[in-house]
Prior knowledge:
Elements: E1 13-14, E2 18-22, H1 28-32, H2 38-41, H3 51-66, E3 71-77, E4 82-93, E5 98-106, H4 115-131, E6 135-141, H5 145-154, E7 157-167, E8 173-182, H6 186-200
Parallel strand pairs: 5-6
Antiparallel strand pairs: 1-2, 2-3, 3-4, 4-5, 6-8, 7-8
Helix pairs in contact: 4-6
Amino acid sequence: MQIESMVVEPVILEGSFVRLEPLRMDHLPALAEVAFAPEIWRWMPMLATSEADLRLWMEQALDQASLGKALPWVTWSKSGGRIIGSTRYMDIDAHNRGLEIGGTWLAPQWHRSGINVEAKYLQLRHAFEVLGAVRVSFKTHHENLQSQTAIAALGAKPEGVFRNHMIMPDGSFRNSVWYSIIQEEWPEIKAGLKARMARHL
């Protein structure tokens, strides 16, 4: 039996509130306008406090994209008409038709705006309905309870903890809490996300 691999290519994903556009280096100035609030990077394995840091973060994302391991986007607020953050597919496993959604951040003033929920909906719909993914995973810092709550609210199921999974910029050890959504669960999760988005409309 021949298993058909996923083919992940740059694509624009657009909804009512948000537009996800493939990351380019010329997005750097717009990202730098919103990227340096300390809470954005508190739980990230990389710290960006300057434009040089942000450029390195972008270069690493684009390097992963060139290897077929990631698809990074900038996140546009359609109402604000500006870039307000970033998200990506990462750890793409084309043969096993799995990927992770991560590297997500938004400028703090756009939290709880409905934008992140719609962005996740667009990413999940594209993964399951266009790419033919059978698994989408998420991971977060063991102390990032806000992120854990948000991931669970999507409908993702907890899978366990990778202990001492990463060394953080301050030298502390991060345990990563893992969640996933599988292909069979997508129809029910899709309906729930559409209901949540309708409340913002």
